[in-house]
Amino acid sequence: MMNYGKVLSDLMQERNIDSLKLATDLSVTRTCIYRWRQGIKDIGLSNLILLCKYFNCSLDYLVGLTENDSRHNNFDIENFGKQVRKIMKSKGISSYKLQQDTRYHGKYFIVWDKGADPKLSTLLELANYFVCSLDELVGIE
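Above: the chain sequence. Below: its structure as tokens.
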């Protein structure tokens, strides 16, 4: 997994933001920020999006997949299950093929459709499988 904690720490340092301010601004605990900065916690999509909005950067940049700090204005992502289905359709991948090639089957779509938050490890695995960026995968590109 990419070291999103280092990128987060660098962004905080560049903008002279300490953990207390970031935690307060994002309505999370300082412990949560500490864990993210240490890369201890497999961060969920909703928190990744919060950080992208806060620092006005792409998801791919935040997790260290690209050195290009591209700015995004469209962070209104739709239901993750629907977005994955869109990617599958555009890539010509059936539900059956996805299930055969990965561990992701119908149960995952049910929980994503109900609003479950995929973790960064899941996002990276799916982006790698679909050969797309994280931004494309979650629909903010």
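The mean pLDDT is 88.
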